[in-house]
Amino acid sequence: MIKIISKNKEKISMVTDMSESLANAIRRFTLEIPILAIDEVEVYKNDSALYDEVLAHRLGLVPLVADKTIKERDKCNCAGKGCGKCSVNLKIQMKGPATVYSKDLKGGAEAVYEGIPITLLNEDQEVELVATARLGKGIDHSKYSPGLSYYRNLAKVEIDNQCDECKKCIEACPQKILGIEKGKAKIKDVYKCDLCEACVEACKKSNRNAIKVEKAPELMFFIESWGQIKAEEIFTRAIDQLNDTLKELSKSLK
Ligand code: SF4
Ligand code: SF4
Ligand SMILES: [Zn+2]
Question: What is the CA(147)–ligand 2 centre distance, in A?
Fold first, then answer.
C-alpha cells in the first residue's frame, strides 16, 4: 500500500506499509539513477579569487538538465572514451565586473536553477572555460544524486481522558500539530509528527501522563528532488534500477 500525502515537482511524501528493508533498498537505489553533472572543466582564463579547482568543484554541483538524450558512458558506442552521444559541452566566457551565475553556462544543457552564484569578477577580470557534463551515479559521487530520500515510522499518538486541557503539549510541539477538541488535546496532522516526544515530556512535567506517542508499523517515505527529475520519478526510477539489478543477479545465478 502506498498513500501519497503531498506531492509536487520538488517533494513527495508517502505513507506505506512496505518493510523497512525494502524502503532502505529503494532509498539506496535512488543513488543508482544516472544523472547529468559536470565532470571535467578546462579553464582557459580565471582571474577570479577562486582557484581553478574550486571553480570546477562549484560547477560540478550545479544541477543540470540536457535538451537531448544522453547515453551512459559505459553503454555508449565510444566504449567510454567520451563522444557527443555520452557528453555535452558547456561554456562560460565572461568579463567583470559581474557575478557569474549558473545561467551563464551555455551549451548542450542548462542549469535547473538560474541563480546559483559560481564566482565574482571585478573590473577587467575574466573567466573562460569549457565544461564537459556526463551521466553518473550518486553512489560514485554525490554531484550525480537526483535528490534526497529518507523515511521514518508513522507516529501513533493517543491522548486519554486524564487530559485536562492544560495546553502544555500544544506549546511544546515544534511542529504545531496539537490542538484541543472535545475537551482534550488532539493531534491535527499525524503525518507531520516526527516522534520527538516533546509533548509527552511537557505532559509529564505538568504531572500528568495523558499523551502517548509510539511508532506505528507504517513508514513515511519522503523524496526531495534537486530538480533534474521530478520527486515522483526518482521513486519509480529507483524501483526500476533495483529491479534491473535483481534480474541481473538472478540471471547470473542461473
Ligand atoms: S499536556 Fe497533557 S494534560 Fe495538558 S493538554 Fe496536553 S495531553 Fe492534556
Ligand atoms: S511527538 Fe513531537 S511532533 Fe509529535 S505531536 Fe508530540 S511534540 Fe508534536
Ligand atoms: Zn560516447
Answer: 27
Give yes or no: residues 130 and 42 share one domain: yes
The residue whose CA has the least distance to atom 1 of ligand 1 is 203
178 Cβ below 6 A of ligand 1: no
- pLDDT tens digits for 34-54? 999 999 999 999 999 999 999
The minimum-distance atom of ligand 1 relative to the CA of 184 is 8
Q: Look at the chain and report how many structural domains it folds into.
A: 2
Helix ranges restricted to H, 30-176: 52-60, 168-172
pLDDT in tens, 131-152: 999 999 999 999 999 999 999 9
- The pTM of the full predicted model, rounded to 2 decimals, is 0.88
Put the strands of the sheet holding 35-46 in their side by side order: 35-46, 126-136, 87-95, 106-107
Same domain (yes/no): 108, 50: yes
